[in-house]
Amino acid sequence: MLLRQGVDIDLLLRLMAKELRLKGTEGAVAYRNNPSDQVGYEMFRRVVLHLSTIQDHNSLHVEPLIIERSWTIPADSVTAEGFKALEQEYQVTYNRQDKTYTLLKQVEGGTLITNYDPDSLSKEERLLLQQKDEQVLVNDVTFDIRPGYYGGDWPLKGDFRLRSFNAMLNFLGLSIAEEPEYHVDKDSRTPEVAENPVKTMDLVVSPSVPTGLDLAMKSHGQYYAVNTTGPQARWNREAFKLLSQLFQMTVTEVPRAGVPSITIAK
Length: 266
Fold this sequence. Notes:
The protein is of the alpha+beta class. The chain has helices spanning 9-16, 38-56, 80-89, 123-133, 165-174, 233-250, 255-258; strands at residues 2-4, 17-24, 27-32, 61-74, 91-95, 100-114, 140-145, 156-162, 203-206, 216-219, 222-226, 262-264. The strands form three sheets. Strands 2, 3, 4, 5, 6, 7 and 8 form a seven-stranded mixed sheet that branches. Strands 9-11-10 form a three-stranded antiparallel sheet. A two-stranded parallel sheet has the order 1-12. α1 packs antiparallel against α2 (38-56).
């Protein structure tokens, strides 16, 4: 599990998510995190800004959904040794009427982003979330922002679809010139935001060695560096650190079919 103390979910999702899928009464609508798609890009940015303000208020929960799985097996198919092994992994209940065993086990499902404590949900609500989680792709992150909690003036339900590490690099490369990012104002229902940089990661390109920056690399006659000066220096450093950690996760074993499980400080 990647534990990133202080990472803003705005930064995290700008970098990792390729699109947002908002669920409404008529189904889901996709919004791409791509500056060339004005409608999609601006909606994406407003939603992640909204989540960021909830996080700033220490009211955002980003946790794996705990799911209870159950299986039923014939009692006569289990030996004494097998029963002892099952007891170590599962909660085992014997059903005398049909002579079966019911096995129960709690497992981690997909990541869930909420403005409420998921543990406060009723059993029926958790079952509904479990059913929805089973329909979500492994590279999706579900969010559920409800009325009655901080940030609930703009209720939101949907998923973020994550992209590959190569796609993250491609997004940052295109943002230099071909598809530059631009400022997007928050939604009117979003509380005041603490930080809303234009660029996910501000990259400096220069024909000569740039001065005053942490590190510069030369490629094809140009120097490239992360802009570590000015008011967004901390943001840009955090973006580069996060990118570095995500790279490390691409070359090591990670859970849930290759999708990183990320806990964000509230």
